[in-house]
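Two proteins, back to back. First:
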Amino acid sequence: MWVCLDEYGEEHYIDTDLARYERDFLPYSWKKLVRLYDLKDQDQVVFDYKGSNGTVNQFVIHAEKLPELGKFTTIHVPDTNCGEVDPKFATKFSGVLPSIWEVYVKNGKDIKLDYNQNCDHPLLRGNWSRLREIYKFKGVTKLSFTYVGTNKFRLSILDQIKDPNLYPEWHMDYITRNIYPD
């Protein structure tokens, strides 16, 4: 058990055996810290050791949040091996985005996606179908990618989309359905 002081001087008692907890079942005090700092999976929490009274170790907490430099939403379509990137996002970060993206996924892991660096039809390939395996998508799913610098992105799973008219207007599935309706 650790006693941690946050930047407001409030004490938090943290069970140090966090490995035995799934993210959704973390102890109340840890969940409180996550809410207090609005922490995401890839944000760092630094515990500065301040000493021990013989029974309890004492720490001061510093949360290091990753910056949000840009964001775009797209959809994950079943049975596809690539994802489409919003062309406005691709153009805005043209020359900055590398060909390999590290995307933080659940449980603190990350996967690498290949980015074609094409502003006219920007695509993500390589491991795109792996997202389907990790998150068990059923149907078309809306995703949000947040660019946090270098080649790193945070991924948020939004909703399932049943109406094709709600696909992003720049997405090929939206364009195809509107140019060649059934």
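And the second protein:
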Amino acid sequence: MEKLPQNFKVPNAEERKRALGSMGGTNFKVKKALENVDDYWVPINPPGPSDWLANEYESGQTFEEFKVNKNAIVEKGKSDTICILPLDKQMSKSFLKNLVKMCEAFFYSCRIKLLPSVDINTIEKIETRQFPGDQYAPDTPGLIQYNASKILSWLFRVYKPQNPRAICIIAVTTQDIYPEENFSFVFGLANVMTQAGIFSFLRYDPGFNGDELNEGDDGQNLMLYRACKVMTHEIGHMFGIRHCTFHECCMNGSNHIQECQSRPLYYCVICFRKLQYAIGFDVQERYQALAKVCQEFGGLFDQDGQWFQRRYDDLLAKFGKLQSKMPDKKVKQ
């Protein structure tokens, strides 16, 4: 069945402000981190004909709507771990190590546990099909794809009971995946109710469809950059954060690799507030950790790393001014 085009309207300033929500009762440091929105975040761009919002209806999700989802809120002392499960025993150890590093910084205050690798073909009742080909990968008909929805059910049934402290479990694979029959492929998929997710980085490989790297580009750095984006996007879904329709944001939906590539690595101010509410990280320490890991990875991470550093420096200046005015008191954490 052919999808009808969606008439997405870019939210105006008042709608974006309303989506961010009231600051009443908000922690002081968090409140400061939500200021100066226009200095750091830009409104979402109108979608092109092949982009996500031109083809998929999204109602948007305000901060207040997010708070209703109690399933996504971390229960201190009960759940504190994000589990990563590689579905390929030959996956690069250094690549997986870097995914863990990004996860530790991005979901600051959570423990990250890398589970032993599993061969995707050993999953019970796994469903596969041959990729029919589409406009994004016309040269790859016959490619074997794996049903991501079935894998999520397996993750919840097998791995959730084995990891009682897990907030969520995300699988990573080098195989192509699809969510259901009427989709040609998907970069990743997550279920907020079971808090299980999966992402594939097959299509992030610049050689997947014969793409040529520009001179000086690092193919491994490009794959890691794209993988970090979709990993943090899918884990965000497992915390109950829906696709962002307000700002340019890592939580925007993506219909193709060019759209995915155009998204920033960071969450917008609204999605940032949702994540902080869910796991309760120190806003300043998190920005510092993200700036550090982006600096370590270099290459395509440099621009986002500079953004994280600016955020950290801004908060450092704000909190430093407060302490200078109140020399005998400590700022509440």
